[in-house]
Amino acid sequence: MQINIQSDGLPIYQQIANQIRYRIAARNLKPGDEVPSIRSLAESLRVNPNTVARAYRELETEGMLEKRRTKGTYVAEQDHQQSIRQRARQLEPHLDTLIMYAVQLGLSLDHVTEQLRERIEVLEKRRTKNKEDLA
Amino acid sequence: MQINIQSDGLPIYQQIANQIRYRIAARNLKPGDEVPSIRSLAESLRVNPNTVARAYRELETEGMLEKRRTKGTYVAEQDHQQSIRQRARQLEPHLDTLIMYAVQLGLSLDHVTEQLRERIEVLEKRRTKNKEDLA
DNA sequence: ATCTCTGTATTAATCCAATAGTACAGTTGC
DNA sequence: GCAACTGTACTATTGGATTAATACAGAGAT
């Protein structure tokens, strides 16, 4: 498993969790697939087993992974895959954080939704432009 | 100046900054108003001057406050008041963070805007309900 | 001049999250 | 039984962020 660790401030265990989360979302990893064992991944990243364990534990709590003791760790079968609702619930605290910031900046909430829409447009355009550049 | 400090994990200097930011946004503090001196506020909160100084420095960077050396610290005249654009720019990194989370959760960006809209509605209702309860 | 008020700078103590070191416990297959 | 693999638990180190202690520097009032 190709995981890139950078010393860019973001904790290692989160970098691992993010990258696996992303692969699952992109269906690059599918339900039932086995992910590297804690020890082997720790070894290949030259990182302590506990660090990988923490990433896996977090993903397990989210219902992304499923540990089978003495067997290994696998991408969970159901849960996150079909249930958008569950994932949406995980996004909620981040929404609240954003709203809190907006309130503190004295920005109206209508303004925030509008600004978010605009920001997404910008990012989308950038993304499609990159694809064109590659073609 | 009535500032409440709680030991709830949020750093003291941020609690101070937040509360002042909020008052300015609510026009409870107006441009030109003087805020308590670093030393006096520090004393009344039983906190180190540097802690208050840090809050003020942050607000100054944001263009909210304006220090006049040997005079005191004042709510800035222009800047934040009329320029929504400036405040919006400060919100941008938070928008990006939210978008990043959404992508990692495999949620479409349209979904995010929709969920944000819904979340805001909930909070708005809760807010108006509280007002009714008080009446 | 000196007292008293501004904000500032430097260094030290403290605390906590992240990570490592290392030993433990269960299962499987030889 | 024992080797080789799973995930886990416990303790120690470290590094960074927060806060404190304390001293500094400028301006105004008396």
Overall description:
Two copies of one chain form a homodimer. Chain A is mainly alpha-helical. The first copy, chain A, has two domains: 12-75, Orthogonal Bundle (Arc Repressor Mutant, subunit A), CATH 1.10.10; 84-134. Chain A contains five helices and three strands, in the order αβααββαα. In chain A, strands 1-3-2 form a three-stranded antiparallel sheet. In chain A, a hairpin with a 3-residue loop joins β2 (65-68) and β3. In chain A, α1 (12-25) packs across α3 and α2 packs across α3. The model of chain A has no long low-confidence stretch (mean pLDDT 87). Chain A binds chain B through residues 18, 21-22, 24-26, 80, 84, 87-88, 90-92, 94-99, 101-107, 109, 111-113, 115-117, 119-120, 123-124, and chain B through 18, 21-22, 24-26, 80, 84, 87-88, 90-92, 94-99, 101-107, 109, 111-113, 115-117, 119-120, 123-124. The structure holds a DNA duplex (30 and 30 nucleotides).
**Biggest β-sheet of chain A: count, sense, barrel?**
3 strands, antiparallel
Shape of chain A: elongated
Count of separate DSSP helical elements of chain A: 5
Supply Rg of chain A: 18 Å
CATH class of the largest domain in chain A: Mainly Alpha
The biggest chain-chain interface is:
A-B, 37 and 37 residues
Helix content of chain A: 55-70%
Order of helices and strands of chain A: HEHHEEHH
**Which strand-content bin applies to the residues of chain A?**
5-15%
User: What name goes with the CATH superfamily of the largest domain in chain A?
Assistant: Winged helix-like DNA-binding domain superfamily/Winged helix DNA-binding domain
* CATH architecture heading of the largest domain in chain A: Orthogonal Bundle
Average per-residue pLDDT of chain A, rounded, comes to 87
